[in-house]
Amino acid sequence: MSSQHPSDLTDVLKSKKDAFQIPDGVIYLDGNSLGVLPKNVPDRIAEVVREEWGTSLIRAWNTHSWIDLPGRTGDRIARLIGAGKGTVVACDSTSVNVFKVLSAALSLRPERKVILSDNGNFPTDLYVASGLKQLLDKGHELRIVDPEGVRAAITDDVAAVMLTQVDYRTGRVHDMADLTRVAHSAGALAIWDLAHSAGAIPVDLAGAKADFAVGCGYKYLNGGPGAPAFLYVAPEHQDKVTSPLTGWMGHEAPFAFDLDYRPVTGINRMTVGTPAILALSSLHAALEVFEDVDMTDIRRKSISLSELFIAEVEARCPQLELASPRNPEARGSQVSFRFAEGYAVMQALIARGVIGDFRAPDVMRFGFTPLYLSHQDIVDAVGILQEILDTQSWNRPEFKTRAKVT
Ligand SMILES: *Cc1c(COP(=O)(O)O)cnc(C)c1O
Fold first, then answer.
1. pLDDT (tens digit, 9 = 90+) per residue, 250-295?
2. How far is CA 229 from the centre of its chain?
């Protein structure tokens, strides 16, 4: 489109869009679910495959430092989430990492039996907690309260408070520093899931004194479908915890092939098996785009984009009801609107190149990724949304058939 929104003229992140491959005619509002392909990634993967794997073969574990890639990738993520070097490792999936850090946290509070979470948490985190509870068979209780009730529910029987900082449906943000402080004063540990925070909003794990954190590599970090996740352990816990998955990569000397498990010191003890080098190479390369970016610039633009989106939708699409907090400080980098036929409207939007997603029962979700979206994109997207609603062009059978992935 030819017009340009005035806010785009002063956008300090404007040039970052060139680092991404965005298909023509697409306005991508789903970077909170699967980030866009950074342009440097295909060449980097080809190089790892052809040169490193193809030519160096097994030697590449040393000559190309494959063995250190989980930690090197973790260090790139650390800067974005307020963590020090050597406190973050990229490995496994978020679900598996939840299992590991929750188990580690519970082992630090053996006399306490309550895992506290909220019903805004992403279901996989709760499923994993419930599975771990059964496996441990030590009488743990998974206590699930309303997000607003978490603070008051942190009682002195709680071992671990396990929360997702940014609600995946509404974008509501928990106050990490405050809840971590309350958890500590009750003698509990704080575990944060940063799936919708990392790369989206400034996070200060060290400042908040968080004990453990996990997060996702394929959302705002643009690591590619199913990219490795990450895991953080506060320095003071690193040598006190053991992973419940005692694989050889967490061993002090994997290539000594001892019959007994001895955990290595530091964050690597939370790793399990051979790292997925192709997937990690993609994530590691994707993080390059963040290297010279200040998270406060990302936050400023994210708020500007989302405020513009809300204002435009409310002015032009009165059928939709805001499901996200109105105060931008209480929101992550996404905005959701409720509409009974939200699924069909979203399919109609996607057919017109405006890609967001849908979360049952009626939430239309739009993610704002300041690295590759402009204010003009927002205005154009809402224009298309308005047209779809005004003409009811969503009201067709092909837009109402639910796909496997929504
Ligand atoms: C996306 C997301 C996950 C995904 O976990 P996977 O193991 O990668 O499937 C977990 N937790 C939260 C809060 C998420 O938003």
1. 999 999 999 999 999 999 999 999 999 999 999 999 999 999 999 9
2. 8
- Please give the Cα distance from 110 to 53 (Å, whole number): 45
- Atom 14, ligand 1: residue with shortest CA distance: 195
Cα of 214 vs centre of ligand 1, distance in Å, is: 9
pLDDT of amino acid 173? 98
Which residue ranges make up each domain of the chain? 6-38+294-400, 81-220+229-274
For the CA of 193, the nearest atom of ligand 1? 13
Q: Give per-residue pLDDT as tens, 185-195.
A: 999 999 999 99
Ligand 1 atom closest to the CA of 125, numbered from 1: 11
Among 95, 220, 231, 357, residue to substitute to test ligand 1 (most atoms within 8 Å of Cβ): 95
23-39 in b/e form (b: 16+ CB < 10 A) is: eeeebbbbbbbbbbbbe
- Cα R_g (the chain), whole angstroms: 22
| pLDDT under 70: residue ranges of the chain | 1-2
- Catalytic residue list: 122, 193, 218-219, 365
Whose alpha carbon is nearest atom 1 of ligand 1? 195
**Class of the 81-220+229-274 domain?**
alpha beta
3.40.1190.20, 3.20.20.140, 3.20.20.60, 3.90.1150.10: CATH of 6-38+294-400: 3.90.1150.10
CA 123 to ligand 1 centroid distance, Å:
9
Which of the 8 DSSP states describes residue 116?
E
Claim: this prediction has a pTM higher than 0.90: yes
* Residue 406 pLDDT: 82
Structure tokens of 8? 């785009």
Task: Look at residue 402 in the predicted model and tell me its pLDDT.
Answer: 87
Q: What is the pLDDT of residue 2?
A: 60
Matching residue, tokens 């000397």: 253
Answer for the pair 165, 197: CB distance below 8 angstroms, yes or no.
Answer: yes
Domains 6-38+294-400 and 81-220+229-274 share a fold: no
Interhelix angle for 375-391 vs 342-351, to 10°? 120
For tokens 């010191």, what's the residue?
265
Q: What is the distance between the alpha carbons of residues 273 and 58, in angstroms, rounded to a whole number?
A: 16
- What is the residue whose two structure tokens read 């809840």? 179
Atom 5 of ligand 1, nearest CA residue = 94
